[in-house]
Amino acid sequence: MADTTLPAFNLPFMRLLATVISAREVAVVKDLADVIDVKDPAKGPLGPPTSQTVAEVKKLAEGQPVSVALGDAGADIKEKLCLAEEMVFSGADILKISVSFVSPKDAVAILKMLRNKVPPSVKIVSAAYSDDKKALITPFDLPDISKRAGIDGILIDTCYKNGRSVFDSMSVADLGAVMEKARGLRLMTALAGSINISHIKLAKDIRPDFLGVRSAITKSGNRGEEGLDPVFVQLLKDEISKIPAGAGSI
């Protein structure tokens, strides 16, 4: 089951959420990442990993919180709820799910069901994509939906992993406005989407609580290829740790 003693995460500086795709990558990030994220890029932007991978990562994380992607909410809500239970049993402390492709009403209902399905100690984060024109829910909608659903936080990410970052599809002003609204509702905030070290100066004006990275810390630059570079992880951690966060908590 998930760790019931998650840290409060009320630190004054931005924190690093580093994505791994296998347990073999954990050693590179466990002493630097504030949250170790697990997903399968082959299954989409928030592709769910296997429960075995989650269990292996949790074992090696040595107490670091583990977040797990559940994919996109849709008609398969019963499957998603079962998947959530499976991931929590395997060690997930935080669950992330995109609500971009359902109506706002359905998003609230799905998130409430998810909230009620797992223990209160497990944190629920809703996600919306900044770059998908077909989305029914945009990042601007996310804070109100998440607050109504009674969950813990929001994530703005990109759907299309084509090298374009979240800053290519939303302005710093718009991203900052969404984060500020979420903070006002006492929601944790996270930002991801092909972010690399050159974007750190932009993140300073947005002040998410967490900055999520994958491709920027890989040896190849390809999010789907295994292998992390400890130098890249350290550089990002050093830069992120200098930036005041929005003081959200999970």
From TrEMBL:
What is this enzyme's class at the first EC digit? Answer: lyase
Give the Gene Ontology MF terms in alphabetical order: lyase activity
> What InterPro entries does the entry give?
4HFCP_synth, RibuloseP-bd_barrel
Keywords carried by this UniProt record: Lyase, Schiff base
Q: Which reaction does it catalyse?
A: 2 D-glyceraldehyde 3-phosphate = 4-(hydroxymethyl)-2-furancarboxaldehyde phosphate + phosphate + 2 H2O
Per the record's keyword annotation, is Lyase included, yes or no? yes
E.C. designation(s): 4.2.3.153
The protein's role, per its UniProt record: Catalyzes the formation of 4-(hydroxymethyl)-2-furancarboxaldehyde phosphate (4-HFC-P) from two molecules of glyceraldehyde-3-P (GA-3-P).
User: What name does this protein carry?
Assistant: (5-formylfuran-3-yl)methyl phosphate synthase
Q: Which species is the source of this protein? A: hydrothermal vent metagenome
